[in-house]
Specification:
Distance between the termini: 171 Å
Helix content: 25-40%
Number of strands: 10
Shape: elongated
Radius of gyration: 55 Å
Order of helices and strands: EEHHHHEEEEHHEEEE
Low-confidence stretches: 20-25, 88-95
Largest sheet: 8 strands, antiparallel
Length: 248
């Protein structure tokens, strides 16, 4: 009996039942091919599961650290090197070794422990005048800071130690003229600090002897003739007496 024919919608032809079975039944080669694809897919999936997580872990942990380091290094400001001060060639150097009142007041007066001539020559250089007579010496330096044209520092030495000192012709600006009455009103025993408050600083300072007797001479800003002057005498740092000349 002949096999009935059936219409195949895919091929649009009539086929027998045997032909239909051949078309619908897959061949052995096709089964092997599909199984091979499945096995390959499984292997790829296993590889992905085993390899991807470590890569993700490395990326998520390593990259933030490197980025943080880059931010840290970029945000850290570079240490600026200190600028070297350039010496101005146009400005002359100040002569700090010239005699001045502040240094003068530190000089020691004593026949055994007084400041030596050698020390002063190192400090102020060679004096303008220097004389020797036996165990005694005298030396004089000019170009006194804040001094007039005749300003000088003079010292007497015995056995190379200073026994007297004086500084003269210092420039002083006074708030008011000093009168004869101002000097007469000074009381014995008044301190030097208080006298400076009342009269201002003197133009000349002199100190001598181991008992440190001192003389202050005022010759500027006085009420009187051009030759007017006044000398104050101190004993142990306190006012003792005054000598007035040509003041009003």
């Amino acid at each position: 009996m002949a096999n009935p024919k059936q219409y195949n919608s895919q091929t649009k032809h009539y086929q027998t039942s045997n032909q239909t079975k051949e078309l619908t039944t897959p061949k052995a080669g096709q089964k092997k091919f599909s199984l091979r694809k499945f096995i390959i897919a499984v292997l790829v999936l296993i590889l992905l599961i085993g390899v991807v997580p470590p890569i993700v872990h490395w990326v998520t942990n390593f990259l933030p650290i490197t980025q943080t380091k880059e931010k840290t290094t970029s945000s850290t400001p570079a240490k600026s090197q200190p600028k070297r001060k350039q010496k101005s060639k146009s400005q002359p150097k100040t002569q700090s070794n010239h005699p001045n009142l502040k240094t003068f007041q530190t000089l020691q007066i004593n026949s055994k422990t007084g400041t030596t001539l050698t020390t002063l020559e190192k400090l102020w250089g060679t004096p303008k005048y220097k004389h020797h007579y036996g165990s005694e010496q005298s030396a004089s330096w000019n170009k006194v800071q804040k001094g007039g044209s005749n300003a000088s520092v003079d010292l007497q030495f015995k056995n190379n130690h200073a026994v007297s000192k004086s500084i003269s012709d210092l420039k002083v600006t006074r708030k008011h003229l000093i009168s004869k009455t101002d000097i007469k009103n000074l009381k014995k025993g008044t301190s030097k600090q208080k006298i400076v408050q009342q009269l201002g600083p003197p133009n000349d300072y002199t100190e001598y002897g181991n008992n440190h007797r001192q003389e202050w001479t005022y010759n500027s800003g006085l009420n009187g003739a051009g030759s007017a002057s006044c000398t104050l005498y101190f004993s142990k740092g306190l006012f003792d007496k005054a000598y007035i000349y040509d003041m009003e």
